[in-house]
Amino acid sequence: MTRLYGAGVAHAAVMVVSFVLAGAAVWGLGVEGLWNPDRWWQSVAVWFVGAAVLHDLVLYPLYSLADRASLPTRSRTVRRVPIRQHIRVPVLAAALTLLIFFPGILNTDDAAIIAATGMDRDPYLERWLWLTAAMIAASVAVFLLRVLLAGVRPRSAGAEDEHHPRGPSSRI
Questions:
Q1: Cα–Cα distance measured from residue 49 to residue 32, given in angstroms and rounded to the nearest whole number
Q2: pTM metric for this prediction
């Protein structure tokens, strides 16, 4: 199975179940349920095409390149505390909150937001910016704390002896 399919039986089963669920959703909604003529950007078809085209062809290569750029090369000194996750987490969280709240953030549809929340759209952009700044600040604080703790952490006795300039027996 692995030689023919390229993955294990469990992966094939999960893929089959995923396609069955997607087919059941399309069957339940009906083809006309996939398109909303009043608000085209709320259509399931638009979100599906956006996910397939925008994410897979544009965003994935971009953030893969950014992720590769954050890898340490052999010429750089290796850090004790990797910084990659401290960049990834706030960027991903900010992108997801932008995706979820973009109608309010970009001032697209005031009536729907007021009907859904009882609030107008004016504070959305400011609140999203504050939330993004708070996530970045928290990530920086955790990174700095990890760097400080990595610098304070004592080495084991065996490691100190191996790296001592005169060798292990000179410390007696």
A1: 16
A2: 0.52
Q: Give the residue extent of every domain in the chain.
A: 1-34, 35-69, 76-172
Length of the chain: 172
Confidence check: pLDDT of 139 > 90: yes
CA dihedral 157, 158, 159, 165 (to 10 degrees): 90
Which amino acid, residue 25? Answer: A
| Residue 78 per-residue DSSP state | P
What distance in Å separates the CA atoms of residue 88 and residue 70, rounded to the nearest whole number? 10
Indicate if the alpha-carbon torsion angle 101, 102, 105, 108 is positive or negative.
negative
Extract the tokens encoding 167. 């060798």
CA angle 46, 29, 102 (to 5 degrees): 35
Copy the structure tokens of residue 87.
Answer: 């960049």
Among 21-30, 95-104, 111-120, 133-142, the range scoring the smallest mean pLDDT is: 111-120
Burial 90-108 (b: 16+ CB within 10 A, else e): bbebbeebeeebebbbeee
Given a cut of 50, is residue 4 above it in pLDDT? yes
Q: What is the CA radius of gyration of the chain?
A: 25
Give residue 12's Cα distance to chain centre.
25
Total Cβ atoms within 10 A of residue 59: 13
